[in-house]
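Mods, move this if it's the wrong board.
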Amino acid sequence: IRNAEVGIRIGTPDLDTLPDLTLQEVKIENISGTGLLAFSADVFATNLLINNCRQHNLGVFIGGHYRFKHCTFASYNFDFFREDPGVLISDNFITADNQLLSDDTDIELLNCIIDGSLRNELLFAATGGVAFLADVRNNLIKTEQEELADLGNLLNEDPLFIDASMYDYRLDTLSPVINQGLDLGVINDLDNQPRDAQPDLGANERIE
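Not the wrong board. Structure tokens:
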């Protein structure tokens, strides 16, 4: 999905946690708004690459249930001036008539890369009035939230993509994310290349 205002928008509030949307081996890029915009939805994604978005790569509002494994969220200042974090996870949303909506949030971010040109590319926004569960492990994250380092995450390291300006988010040979992932049973990567027993972070496995 390329050259859109919003890549995917989904809003499916319900009482179950079954995925309303499953994304596997998907690219969303060069978006003038948000790449994946979700309201009270249930979204499961593996090998998802969202890049070069003016607002959020991933914007979650009014909670929901989300599972992101081996995903890459990366936006820089190549084509847009950016002010919003690449990944925003919020349990609330304020409507046009100033009404506050909120709901429980349950999200997993495992073996992902969250990088960009801002100092904080991951933001959690919780009202405190509903349940907010976040499992954030073994990722590379551009952030000033030092407490995330205790969860096996790499903070503020350059992922060393081959050439992000040319939409090439494969990993260079010296990338710090190589062999840093958990074995999540994701056999292949975004390009249908096999992952090894010590998988790399993000959507692409480094193939020698």
